[in-house]
Design a protein that fits this description.
There is one protein chain. This protein is α+β, with helices and mostly antiparallel strands. It has a domain of 121 residues: Aminopeptidase (3-Layer(aba) Sandwich). The protein is 30% helix and 33% strand. The chain has a seven-stranded mixed beta sheet, sandwiched between helices. Helix 3 links the parallel strand 4 and strand 5. Helix 1 crosses helix 2. The termini are far apart. It binds coenzyme A (COA).
């Protein structure tokens, strides 16, 4: 059995503060998750408030991995996409506390997100990860196919451009095709 529990996160002040701390630590340590360093607690909290409001509307699922009651890792399954892409979902905002890396939390969250995407009738998952200091090996170990690199896609948290690597995976009924 895994040494942690995986469950969807609903908005509450304590969990938002745990998510904000995880996001700030990730950005500070150079993780490419859309934000620049330094990320203020207010901006981190505002991001999660919006994200969890979208989750409450059914537009996404924010999953957490918890060691007892402590949040150690999170990933977001983005379900709201344009009307011509109802079969697709996106994986985003994957991050694990520095002290908890290498315990399998991200891999377990990815598998849980995939099961939820299938349950929502999705047959294609898409994600991207930074070329420098990203998580490409994690996704490749989980069966994601590499499409290519867009150069100079985004700034790294401490400055300087990096490319982004695009990945996809067929899931559910489409997995064998
Ligand atoms: C990427 C990240 C979420 C991985 O979290 P984690 O909980 O440590 O990952 P896991 O323990 O589940 O790793 C599963 C496997 O992937 C490998 N892996 C995970 N992240 C990796 C990385 N960045 N580079 C190389 N290998 C990695 C692990 O070594 C492990 O391999 P194994 O199964 O052979 O032992 C974490 O490093 C992180 O938060 N990074 C900063 C934010 C970031 O870059 N997020 C990705 C945005 S796309």
């Amino acid at each position: 059995m895994l040494p942690f529990a995986i469950k969807p996160i609903e908005d509450a002040p304590e969990i938002r503060s745990a998510l904000a701390a995880l996001l700030i630590e990730t950005v500070t340590s150079g993780g490419s998750v859309s934000f620049m360093h330094p990320l203020s607690p207010e901006d981190a909290d505002a991001f999660w408030q919006d994200s969890l409001a979208a989750a409450a509307r059914g537009e996404r699922i924010v999953l957490g991995a918890f060691d007892r009651n402590r949040l150690i890792s999170t990933v977001t399954l983005q379900l709201k996409l344009p009307p011509n892409q109802p079969h697709r979902a996106e994986i985003a905002k994957m991050m694990t506390h520095l002290a908890d890396r290498g315990r399998g939390a991200a891999a377990a969250l990815l598998r849980a997100a995939e099961r939820l995407a299938i349950a929502h009738g999705r047959t294609l998952l898409v994600l991207d990860t930074a070329e420098e200091d990203g998580a490409a090996p994690l996704y490749e170990k989980q069966g994601y196919q590499f499409s290519g690199i867009i150069p100079d896609y985004a700034l790294k948290p401490h400055g300087g451009l990096t490319g982004t690597m695009i990945y996809w995976k067929r899931i559910g009924a489409a997995a064998a095709t």
